[in-house]
């Protein structure tokens, strides 16, 4: 086989295995035997195109944020996932209202660094990255696979996503919006909720989760064993100038308390 035939065979193999709508990191392509010079040649020949520094997409392909996240998870091995409100949107529990640029909530362990090519402006969204130790970093609890077109993504299960969402209340998500989304979570798995509440490291999140779940009257709440969950001591202020809930020792907006006791 001549050199040109070998190069053509390699590019055909690469393109046939490349899921449409995804990014490929240059470092990952290097490990497959596609070095810098070869990638430059493919680019000049119109097979691939740069996607920022250190990444490529198929020439003329349209890539959205899931296709970029695919590379972070499967090629670079980063512990980054769609969680919170975004995972709940993907599962149909929360609804994205197209009033301006979409906000995508990603979660990762402390110290996770995103590559420079992974930019919200390049993907047409606003990336809200939260690095948190809300759950132990090595925990595999509360994840599910979500297929986006031709490729899978690892996202938070609804149970984990609800807690991740409440972690951002009231700074990035309002209490009122979180309460509305919690209303939709009628079919959470109590065994999964129990395990996640036991592992969760935020007293605020655990109390807020229980308060909103009880307020929405979800039947799965009765299957939980709160004696095995550390809800901490002392008061927590969720919002200033709110009303105090004596059961969970949190200060919440007055309207929600009035509705709960109506």
In summary, what is this structure?
It is built from eleven helices and eleven strands. With 262 residues, the protein is an alpha+beta fold.
Provide the descriptors you would attach to this structure in a database record.
elongated, 11 helices, 11 strands, single chain, 262 residues, alpha+beta, three-stranded antiparallel beta sheet
What can you tell me about this protein's structure?
It is a single chain. With 262 residues, this protein is an alpha+beta fold. The protein has 2 domains: 3-58; 65-70 and 77-229, no CATH class. Helices cover 39% and strands 18% of the residues. The strands form 4 sheets. A 3-stranded antiparallel β-sheet has the order 1-3-2. A 3-stranded mixed β-sheet has the order 4-5-6. Strand 7 (143-148) and strand 8 form a beta hairpin. The model has no long low-confidence stretch (mean pLDDT 93).
């Amino acid at each position: 086989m001549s050199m040109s035939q070998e190069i053509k065979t390699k590019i055909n193999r690469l393109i046939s295995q490349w899921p449409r709508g995804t990014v490929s990191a240059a470092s990952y392509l290097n490990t497959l035997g596609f070095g810098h010079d070869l990638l430059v040649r493919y680019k000049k020949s119109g097979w691939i195109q740069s996607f920022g520094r250190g990444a490529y997409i198929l020439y003329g392909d349209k890539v959205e944020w899931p296709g970029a996240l695919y590379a972070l998870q499967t090629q670079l091995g980063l512990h980054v996932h769609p969680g919170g409100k975004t995972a709940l949107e993907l599962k149909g529990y929360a609804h994205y209202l197209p009033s301006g640029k979409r906000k995508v909530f990603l979660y990762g362990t402390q110290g996770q660094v995103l590559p420079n090519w992974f930019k919200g402006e390049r993907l047409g969204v606003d990336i809200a990255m939260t690095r948190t130790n809300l759950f132990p970093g090595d925990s595999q609890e509360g994840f599910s696979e979500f297929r986006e077109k031709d490729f899978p993504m690892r996202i938070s299960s609804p149970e984990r996503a609800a807690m991740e969402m409440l972690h951002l209340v009231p700074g990035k998500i309002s209490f009122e919006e979180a309460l509305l989304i919690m209303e939709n979570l009628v079919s959470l798995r109590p065994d999964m909720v129990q395990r996640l509440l036991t592992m969760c490291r935020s007293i605020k999140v655990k109390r807020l989760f229980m308060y909103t779940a009880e307020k929405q009257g979800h039947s799965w709440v009765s299957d939980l064993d709160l004696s095995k969950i550390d809800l901490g001591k002392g008061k927590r202020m969720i919002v200033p100038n709110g009303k105090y809930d004596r059961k969970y020792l949190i200060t919440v907006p007055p309207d929600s308390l009035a509705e709960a006791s109506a």
